[in-house]
Amino acid sequence: MPGRVKVGEDPGVTQTQPPLGPADRHGSVRRSGAGRAVAVLVLVALAALIPLLGPSAALHGTGEAEAPGAGGTALLRTVLFAALCIPVGELFVNRLARSSPGTQSPRPALPRSWSPLAAGAGFLAALGLAAVVATGNLLPGAGADIDLGGLYASRDGKLALLEVNAFLVAGLCAASRRPVAQVWPLAAVVVAEALRAHPATEHTALTGTGLTLVHLTCAALWAGGLLHALRVLRLWSGRRDPAAGAALLGLYARVAVVLLAAITATGVCSSLRRMPPETILGQLTGTAYGRALLAKVLLVAVAAALAVWARRRLRRAADPLTACAPARAEVGALGLAVAVSGVLTALPLPIRW
After folding, report:
1. Which of 96-105, 212-221, 321-330 has the highest mean predicted lDDT (pLDDT)?
2. Residue 13 phi/psi, 5° resolution?
3. Confidence (pLDDT) at 23
4. pLDDT in tens, 37-85
5. Residue-range domain boundaries for the chain
């Protein structure tokens, strides 16, 4: 109360908390970084459960047989897709950053590249998938089960070896002084995946390969590009350059609209090739492939809605960088869509009635 002073207090002195020293601030940053790392690890672990358990869940009650080791194959394919998205997104956004109107320097500051690590993960995943092909599309139980020579005798084996070598070269390029050169081995991975998804015996295989080529390229640019754009924004915001960050995010958003349109168009065409219009509704719920495809469509729809929300904030909010919150959620939805895409590759294709 006014006019009353507690015993031992000096009425002329205002008590304040001492300012945080450098050690306290660094400790707070370390705790924040550690908490963020733990959260990321938990999310990655949960995402890994989707390809591991997804095939069994999708096949439940359909009467379709599950291929041996489908969960492991789906996990390897998911890692391969993620390893493709990261360097593709970095190359894409780094180019946007250099041409962004808010950038003052022709060589703007960029975060540390994750491409070498992604290439290593992609190499291991491709190596595992090559081992699966070498054992007759089964998970090898021992080294003696792997027929390496047989890889050169089949189309799938040659494509698997191409992906292994492409990720190896991409990693070397990413660690070199000209990381942009990794665009060529990454393009080889995309082509190999498009060819693998459509065997030569398939009806209009060339059309399907072209659709998958465009679909996979645009998906990698969208997912990987958004992830790297948010990393760049975080770096630039720390350097007190929010205008440049907002300009970069706006530039990415304009390109992302085109990417989403291409993904939607190629996805619809590919789905109609697998499931004719007169049977698609029944197969979306009655087949494992249809169920996984429906889950992927819903996740992409959620990601698109979050993208619209982020774009609206970017245009209308007093602080354009508040768009980062829905954009981070969008990255999460896209990550789940990548995992479901891995599940799709391990499921039996629907029968055309």
Report:
1. 212-221
2. -120, 130
3. 46
4. 676 777 778 788 999 999 999 999 998 988 888 999 999 999 999 999 9
5. 68-344
At CA 55, angle to CA 326 and CA 114, rounded to 5?
45
User: What pLDDT, in 10s, does the model give residues 112-148?
Assistant: 999 999 999 999 999 999 999 988 777 777 776 777 7
Q: Give me the amino acid identity at 41.
A: L
